[in-house]
């Protein structure tokens, strides 16, 4: 079975150019992060990507419940869907980094389900009760697209409660950090890492830059669970001491997640360097043959889309290397490899 190759990018000044490159390389979809304390705005970024590209799919990766009123989300989604007809997919999640970075816990799954139902109903043109009041999209022609607005709505579903919610909502697809525990029509698997060039290892500066943010994200998550838990990880005790020395307790979350899955801060670079060979064991870092083996196994388990998260100062180079490793280029680039694991030609529906 074939698997599509997509990418996930944070809103940034470079996202339009990065998305154009992803489209040129044949990536199936560009998912966009939603973490307002750390990056630019999700919806502005999606509008920029829509304007800069012609075919590649667009996705919220993921829209975080509780950050916006459901009407705001529905109106924004409708506007992007109008800019890029047939190309937008909405994926919603409870929020981890995005909410921890503003000092909040992820929203309860029940709240996520309620918001997804509300947004779906608003896009359908229905009257919806929100916070005890009736709401409906009422834009006249020229002020918004006609309802219903046909946008697939997915769920981030890596844990058992979110998986149960996805089943209850009967979503057409899920975005997850693990292989499926059940069959979904579409299952997108998030993976960070880098393609190792000949002679590279965990000490290579480029590899530290590219794989390091993924490694640091593990420490970020461990700290949110129990700050002292990071002491058992390489460099974790020193990292925690630096966090505690830099901020009062009520403000430490402001530093912990800075650069999350995008850029190594000086503090996180020390973590990545201290990781040693373990740096290469998380995410998908390896030679092209090793990455193809991982993708083949994922496809056999039911994954239909690999979503690569390039974390490096040179995102374009990382996108190119991953596309080449998992199938080759389209257009004027090198010929397509024989593997069935290939980037798609834009958005599959």
UniProtKB/TrEMBL annotation:
Luciferase-like domain location: 13-304
Tell me the GO molecular function terms.
oxidoreductase activity, acting on paired donors, with incorporation or reduction of molecular oxygen
Any one Pfam family here would be Bac_luciferase
Entry keywords, A to Z: Oxidoreductase
Q: Which InterPro entries match?
A: F420-G6PD/mer (IPR050564), Luciferase-like_dom (IPR011251), Luciferase-like_sf (IPR036661)
Task: State the superkingdom.
Answer: Bacteria
Q: Know the name of this protein? A: 5,10-methylenetetrahydromethanopterin reductase
What's the source species for this entry?
A: Amycolatopsis xylanica
């Amino acid at each position: 079975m074939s698997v599509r190759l997509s990418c996930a990018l944070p809103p940034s000044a470079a996202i339009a150019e990065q998305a154009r490159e992803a489209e040129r390389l044949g990536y199936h979809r560009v998912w966009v992060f939603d973490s307002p304390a750390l990056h630019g705005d999700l919806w502005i970024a999606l509008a920029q990507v829509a304007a800069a590209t012609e075919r590649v799919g667009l996705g919220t990766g993921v829209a975080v419940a509780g950050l916006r009123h459901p009407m705001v989300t529905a109106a924004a989604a409708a506007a992007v869907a109008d800019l890029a007809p047939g190309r937008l997919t909405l994926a919603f999640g409870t929020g981890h980094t995005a909410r921890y970075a503003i000092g909040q816990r992820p929203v309860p799954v029940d709240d996520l389900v309620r918001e997804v139902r509300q947004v779906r109903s608003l896009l359908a043109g229905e009257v919806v009760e929100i916070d005890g009041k009736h709401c409906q999209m009422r834009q006249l022609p020229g002020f918004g697209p006609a309802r219903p607005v046909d946008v697939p709505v997915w769920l981030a579903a890596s844990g058992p409660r979110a998986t149960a919610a996805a089943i209850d909502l009967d979503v057409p697809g899920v975005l997850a950090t693990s292989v499926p525990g059940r069959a979904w029509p579409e299952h997108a698997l998030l993976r960070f890492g880098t393609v190792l060039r000949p002679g590279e290892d965990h000490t290579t500066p480029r590899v530290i830059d590219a794989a390091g943010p993924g490694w640091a994200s593990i420490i970020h998550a461990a700290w949110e669970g129990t700050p002292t838990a990071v002491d058992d990880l390489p460099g974790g005790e020193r990292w925690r001491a630096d966090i505690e020395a830099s901020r009062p307790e009520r403000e430490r979350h402001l530093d912990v997640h800075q650069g999350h899955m995008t850029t190594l801060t000086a503090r996180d670079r020390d973590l990545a360097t201290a990781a040693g060979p373990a740096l290469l064991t998380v995410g998908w870092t390896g030679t092209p043959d090793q990455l193809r083996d991982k993708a083949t196994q994922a496809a056999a388990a039911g994954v239909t889309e690999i979503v690569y998260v390039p974390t490096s100062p040179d995102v374009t180079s990382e996108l190119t290397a991953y596309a080449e490793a998992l199938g080759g280029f389209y257009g004027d680039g090198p010929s397509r490899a024989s593997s069935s694991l290939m980037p798609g030609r834009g958005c599959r529906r």
